[in-house]
Amino acid sequence: xxxxxxxxxxxxxxxxxxxxxxxxxxxxxxxxxxxxxxxxxxxxxxxxxxxxxxxxxxxxxxxxxxxxxxxxxxxxxxxxxxxxxxxxxxxxxxxxxxxxxxxxxxxxxxxxxxxxxxxxxxxxxxxxxxxxxxxxxxxxxxxxxxxxxxxxxxxxxxxxxxxxxxxxxxxxxxxxxxxxxxxxxxxxxxxxxxxxxxxxxxxxxxxxxxxxxxxxxxxxxxxxxxxxxxxxxxxxxxxxxxxxxxxxxxxxxxxxxxxxxxxxxxxxxxxxxxxxxxxxxxxxxxxxxxxxxxxxxxxxxxxxxxxxxxxxxxxxxxxxxxxxxxxx
Length: 328
Ligand SMILES: Nc1ncnc2c1ncn2[C@@H]1O[C@H](COP(=O)(O)OP(=O)(O)OP(=O)(O)O)[C@@H](O)[C@H]1O
Ligand SMILES: [Mg+2]
Fold this sequence. Notes:
single chain; 328 residues; alpha/beta; Rossmann fold; 8-stranded mixed beta sheet; two-stranded parallel sheet; 13 helices; 10 strands; globular; disordered C terminus; binds adenosine-5'-triphosphate; binds magnesium ion
């Protein structure tokens, strides 16, 4: 399952995605963790020192190798330079699995040992002031979109992404690439306004969205979220002393997390797992093509100098090859 955590700055995306990742890893499940937020904090939240986090390879810096690997011998893609972030896979493309060794993981992922279990971590790379001036956020997360479009993940395997919810996410197709999006909302007007904005953008794309209240302190907070979010409110994570300990530099073991908050993590997993059954590989591939054609027209064709629509095999459905072998 491909899961995203989005929300207003400071709402708790990194905290909740790191906790969810640790929860899954503790249960022994394979997890690829992806830091795709403007504020790159997932590494430290998973226990890396600042030095270790700074030494993580950045996906953006490895784009040429990633493209070269993924294109495989797809006859519709003549060279890596002709691949843009939305170029969809086709026959001959190399696909990624959550559990395998491949050159992309070798170059861009690092293992992170947790108190229970371990995960692979990938990061888009830090966003500097200069980046924000010239290269926009979506040029950095382009590598993540490419990876997700080439990922074959099965049940009980997870890719969890810490994202931003800024409107920049909607400039690319990345927000449509997840089986489930958790929107983290504090019980404040700003927290819920980000939810409304996200929902509005997302509803034309069948994005499966669930709101997780965070830093919920009592019945008033809960009432507020229930009133403002309605049935999209899926669970509420409380104001947590355990998270506070983490903030103070302690390393509390996951098993000491407050039982009610542990329960929330279990509920998130239930939602994630049930999203698998709602998948529609045809729609997923068709959306990839739709974003590719849109990007091709708006900047890709001019940049690469070819008609990028020729990269599309209209009959190709990601996952269909796997489904057909699994079915026999
Ligand atoms: N449930 C909670 N209980 C107590 N503190 C929390 C909780 N959730 C988050 N925090 C604290 O709130 C702050 C913001 O959390 P976090 O960094 O996870 O948010 P974010 O959405 O990832 O922020 P950014 O947009 O900066 O990436 C942190 O200091 C974190 O420790
Ligand atoms: Mg964060």
